[in-house]
Amino acid sequence: MSFLREISSLKKNMFLSEKDVLLRLVAQIEAEIQQGERKNYNEVLDLSSGDLHRGGIKPITFVRQVLAACFYPALLKDDSLPLDVKERADDLLRQCEGGSVGSYTDLCGIAKIKHSVSKFITRRDGGVPSSPENIFITSGSQMALMFLLKLMIQSKVPCQTGVLIPVPTYASFTLALEDHGAAIIPYYLCEEQCWTLQVEELRRALHEGRRTCNPVALYICNPGNPTGHIQSRKSIEEVIRFAAEEKLFLLADEVYQSCVYGEDTEFESYKKVLSEMGSTISSTVELASFNSASKGFMGECGLRGGYMELVNLDPAVKEYTRILFSTRSCPPVGGQIALDLMADPPKPGDPSFPTFSEEVQSIKNMMRKNACRIQEVFGELPGISCQPLKAGFFVFPCLHFPPRALKWAKKRQMKPDMLYCLQLLEETGLHVRPGCEYGQRKDSHHIRLLVATHEDIMEDALQRLKTFHMRFMKEFS
Question: What Rg do the C-alpha atoms of the chain give, in angstroms?
Fold first, then answer.
């Protein structure tokens, strides 16, 4: 008997998803294109993931120059590199054993980079202090979240550990919770009010969850994935008070914090708001916040650099966290360097600052322009509604299917938005994700597509979507 037959049903289910079906079709279409069998389009346009560079946005010059010099130190003698690039690379190499990025580092990250991250957090939060001792660097922010879940979730007790999560939320987090044996307690964001998080809904979900499990944590994604919303300060305060009352650990996923483009909109971290709420709450609510070099203006997804900051944790629990980290190898050095460059970018007066500033502003302007263009196009299409885009990498429009389309999907034994995405991919080569992958209210249907992409690619994607959608609605009306 093959040992593969012994894989638990939980693990098996992780491999069966809408994502697999769409990816298999992508592979089939790309093979057909290479063989010259496709005529109505000559490439798959992939807006399915939060990958800036796949979306045609170029890497930041300063970031890549420093990385290049760190990986090939001979470049430190190259006069074509700006002085601040060479100084930064030289400084980073001094932090590595043997002066090489190929050496192991401390399991929780290079000390100098942890200091850079803590200074970045202090600046971001207007002077609220951050200690390097509370910073844990990992291979991506999701890995940091997984470490914390391992500490929280107890599988060998009569009652499952529960985690409150928003609906919609990104699918890989839901799968991770299931993999760790947690009970998922869904709470629904209010789409009609720009995906607001309402405390009344949190209370309903918590009350429901306590019937079957032991809720210990509340997960927040702000700015939102896939919804593109951002919480107001008032909303954050309400959530923190709720967590204090119910003794819930706050998990604040804030990886899109540098990607805010809505008018009169700004990001405030959970830690900053918590620190300003009075000592009774600010010194007792336990919080872990997460950030990454992947989801901001740098978009360095493949380098795998993320961190978490722990706030108000019991020292003994923090020590257990360090012990857990000791069971793994160090985070990738390239990802750690990317975090350092994100936390401490060029400053006015530095040789690299003009180019760096221009490139970052160009990316932000492009995303703002894309957001406006998306709202414009969706406003013209029948059967689509979309809440205002304010932040993050994605848009999550609602599809209002005619009854005939719903019957067609039911006959095919598929969810309507999944079938829509399959047909969209097959007919136009545009790859987006179905809302059923992220969770949604009963009888509602959505798609998720990337906003953070080059404007030419965005225009091509919107034209493909518009052409398909008009034909689809006409066929099923």
Answer: 23
